[in-house]
Amino acid sequence: MICFEDKTQIYLAVVYTKSQRVNETIMSMEQLYFLGFTILVVLVSMIYQVINSKMKRKQISAADLPPGKQGWPLIGETLEYLSRPEQFITDRMMKFSPNIFKTSILGENVVVLCGSSANKFLFTNESKLFTFWMHPALASALALQNIPKTSLSSKLLDEELHKLLKMDNMHHLIPIMSSVVLEHLQENWAPFDEVKAQPLSKHFTFALSFRILVNSQSPHEFEEFRELFFRMHDKTMSKSVSLPFYKATKVKDVIEKLKDIMSRRKTELPENVDEESCRDLLGRVLLSSHKKEMVLNYDEIAGRINSLLFASFYTISTTITFLLGHLAQYPHIYSKVLQEQMEIAELNEMSGRLSWKDIQKMKYSWNVVCESMRLKPPALGSYREAITDFTYAGFHVPKGWKVHWNVYTTHKDPIFFPDPEKFDPSRFEGNKLPPYTFVPFGGGPLMCGGKEYARIEILVFLHHVITKFKFWKVNPNEKISYNPIPVPAEGLRIRIQPYKK
Predict the structure, then answer these.
(1) 298-329 and 219-236 helices cross at what angle (nearest 10)?
(2) φ and ψ at 235, to 5 degrees?
(3) DSSP characters for 224-260?
């Protein structure tokens, strides 16, 4: 039996244990309350910092954003910019600031940096302050929206593209270019007394780009792909691509056709093929992946090749169109170019072939091309995204805003180009122009990698057309519209007369 004293001790022990548990519970609840209070304080502090930061940003933005206006909701000033790009830029430089102004283009907050100093600032701060930006609608229209830059297929294409555009390889491209030009002139110029230079320039540049980048030997396949590509190009270059509801549809057919060509060419790839026999980009990529036993992502390769076709197609065809227009408009310049090209042709009368040395002799001709690009630029510029806040010309630009550089901010600046509307190729003699003033190919790390390729293609075309035909404008007063690149209203109609041998 348990005595009273033992019961008392047991009772006291139970009471002590319960009180200890109660105390522990109270302490744990206090700790829990304290922890919850601490978390609440931290959250409130974080929310306050975010709100305070946004308030400060609003205060900074209101006080220090560049001058300008942003137009209508959603579309901003997009349509005005696309339809009258030169006037859009010059009007706002005069009204707001010659250095920087804000606007809204393609549904984005945009600042336009103006002048040669601005070009230098942007081109020398790539990756520090800016990263390349393309509007999602355009990326979708070119099938680039889902292609990571770091993918193995994309890296392989970049490697082979770099090899293709190396100076040493350019020598081998000149005979190919000459062959395509001569075939084009024989089929599309020689049988006629009058031609439309703009659509024919598009057909020529596409044929050459297709040969260099894809090189399908099937005429039926070429014609089928060209039709699909031209439909996609016309849709992409329309103003509808800039609207919020735009949906890319035409590009799907182009991509599927390119994938079909890739599959066929891969199955036809001989076991003992070498790089010398694969001079086109697609052939190089297929051969390299075969040697490395690498599985290609056809969608990525097709998207990248499509974008290269697009870029080379519309810029070079526009340059050739207005080069022909300016030559037809200015007989004294036409005569000097003809003289330079005839001297080269006479030296090559026996072989009938152009060489790398011949291209280097075309100095005056290239000055004429540059002056033509200055007055009628084939590309307006491009966009970056600010990866951090920055200040330029005393104004604050927030992170995430889009930054646009445009050729019209310098190409007609009378400080660098006196009497800017005058067609004067002598501007480009020697090294008279300051850096960052003439930028048809951009500048810095993102300068157009196809600059030399474009120069050679344009000069090869010019050599053959001007040594075979005399030409002049049918309508000297033909109007020019913009979409946003310049487009002759009548396709640039020219009369042609072949030279007698």
Answers:
(1) 80
(2) -70, -40
(3) HHHHHHHHHHHHHTSGGGGSTT----HHHHHHHHHHH
* pLDDT per position as a tens digit, 428-459: 998 789 999 999 999 999 999 999 999 999 99
Q: Is-contact 371 428, C-beta < 8 A?
A: yes
Q: Which ranges constitute the DSSP H helices of 65-133?
A: 78-83, 85-95, 116-123
In the DSSP assignment, the letter for residue 66 is P
Kind of pairing between the strands at 108-113 and 402-406: parallel
Contacts by 162-165, CB closer than 8 A, 24 or more apart: 162/449, 163/284, 164/212, 164/279, 164/281, 164/284, 165/449, 165/450, 165/452, 165/453
Reported for 202-206, long-range contacts at CB under 8 A and 24+ positions apart, including other chains, are 202/230, 202/313, 202/314, 202/317, 204/180, 204/317, 204/320, 204/461, 205/312, 205/313, 205/316, 205/317, 205/320, 205/457, 206/230, 206/309, 206/313, 206/317
Identity (one letter) of the amino acid at 235?
A: K
Contact 167/314 with Cβ under 8 angstroms? no
What's phi and psi for 143, nearest 5 deg? 65, 40
pTM, to two decimals: 0.85
Q: Could you tell me how far CA 315 lies from the centroid of its own chain?
A: 10
- 377-390 confidence digits (pLDDT tens): 999 999 999 999 99
pLDDT in tens, 60-69: 555 689 999 9
Contact 461, 181 (CB under 8 A): yes
SS3 215: coil
Which residues does 201 contact at the CB level (< 8 Å), separation at least 6?
317, 318, 320, 321, 324
Q: Alpha helix (H) ranges present in 348-474? A: 356-361, 363-375, 451-468
Residue 247 pLDDT > 70, yes or no?
Answer: no
* Residue 456 contacts residue 476 (beta carbons within 8 Å): no
Cis peptide before 498 (omega within 30 of 0): no
pLDDT tier for residue 4 given thresholds of 50, 70 and 90:
very low
